[in-house]
Amino acid sequence: MSDSREPPDPLLSPALEHKTLLWLVAGFTFAFLGVLWPLAGAVLWALFLAIVFFPMHQYVRRLVKRRSTLAASLTLLSIVLMVILPLSLVSASVVEQASMLYQGVKSGQIQPGQFLQQMMDALPAWAQSVLARFGLFDLPAVLQRAGELLSRSSQAITSGLVGIGQVTLEFVVSFFIMLYVLFFLLRDGGALVGRIERAVPLRPEQTRKLLSQFVTVVRATVKGNVVVAVVQGALGALAFWFLGIPGPALWGSLMALLSLLPAVGAAMVWGPVAIYQLFTGMVLEGLGLIAWGVLVIGLVDNVLRPMLVGRDTRMPDYLVLVATVGGISLFGLNGFVIGPVIAAMFLVCWSLLTDVREENAESAPLAPAPAPNAGTAAASAPASAPAQDREPAA
User: Is 279 a member of any domain?
Assistant: First the structure.
């Protein structure tokens, strides 16, 4: 009797459907990331701010009796008043002082060449001979070569200035997109986390561990770096104001920005100023600035950063430093958060893999040991002997 059943259609195979679906998910995921790439900074900072301020949003949500839209609006308004508005005021002050400093240099009231000449004249003879050997002691020639280099690059500078309007427009658009995305992340953050937990093809406890570590690292890195930057910048600006150095807010903001580089960031600003003061006869001011930079500004970095960043993320200080510097060099300013996040996810993924391998090793059945000789008593022992009667392997 012949079999009249038709062979199964290979196009209806469940394995083929699953592979096709995986390829579609991967393809459109990469396409969606490509669409988001021009606005990656705005979306990332919306995500970072939502994570940092989500506890405050939950508190506000309880106050307004769980009205999510109202709570998200109030939280967003608080972020604008507490973070964005003060940052805008400081930025305006920095721009004003930078403009005044530029006008002073242009009018001749501030002469950087004279400052450099005073420093070179104060150097010992051996240092002057080393600079002269490399052709760096003749300051007018050095300044002339620098002027020629600037004149050759004037066309590039002019083209860059022409694009300022476009950059400003892009910044404004990105800023409002960040606020818009931030509002919906605050309002619908809990539902989004639930969808991610269901969609990620891992066990629920593994997904929760990954998400928990991601949130912890972002919150600790943003809070830690921002607090350290603000404190170091304020202390540096205070020292420069006390010493009468022009543009204290400008140099304080520069110290705050460079403080994203752990251990050496702020010293790149106050260090040269202190050296200049020592070489030009202002020994007391130079020693005081060095003491303030090492004992006060440096103490902030050495104490607050490990407490706010390393402790919560449970990462060693050297890994935080390497991840931060590498992230900034690769992703720009956003890298001071992205770098530590990638490092933390690297550690937690390897930890999850180690846990899975240990679980599989414990659940795997023990292979029976081969009998040494067919006639020995060990060979005649029953294979089903209890595990507690066997000697542990060396």
Answer: yes
